[in-house]
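User: I'll paste a sequence; please echo it back and then give the predicted structure.

Assistant: Echoing your sequence first, then the prediction.
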Amino acid sequence: MLKHLSHLHTPDLLHVLASMGHGDEIVLVDANYPSASCAKRLVRLDGVDLPRVLDACLKLMPLDDFVEQPALRMEVVGDPVVIPEIQQECQEIIDRHEGLGRFQLAAIDRHAFYARSREAFAIVATGELRPYGCIILKKGVVLQG
């Protein structure tokens, strides 16, 4: 056991987050996502909803402020302007960790999301049951000082 870590900071998740470098991407997906067939590296957190996993990741990992869109969300098929409740919850968590309004979850087409997830450093499969509980995060730099 380690102090100050969540029980969600499993050895596998900690290893992935620590191994990622600046600009690497991690994909957090819902229970319906084909994570095993898309992932280079797969971390399973079955039974845990997406907001809790996102919160655990952002406690340890900054978003990349060198790019315009370090956080992406999967668009709703047939209605790309709608933002599902699950994605709104994720935006609130991003705002809490990174500053209100600093980074907005940008929309990305479903097929582009799948292609990008195949190139990501890792995929974290959550137990999120709500549809469109899928986001991509680009890791930033931890500045000392």
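The CA atoms of residues 95 and 101 lie 6 Å apart. Helices lie at 11-19, 35-38, 50-58, 85-98, 110-119.
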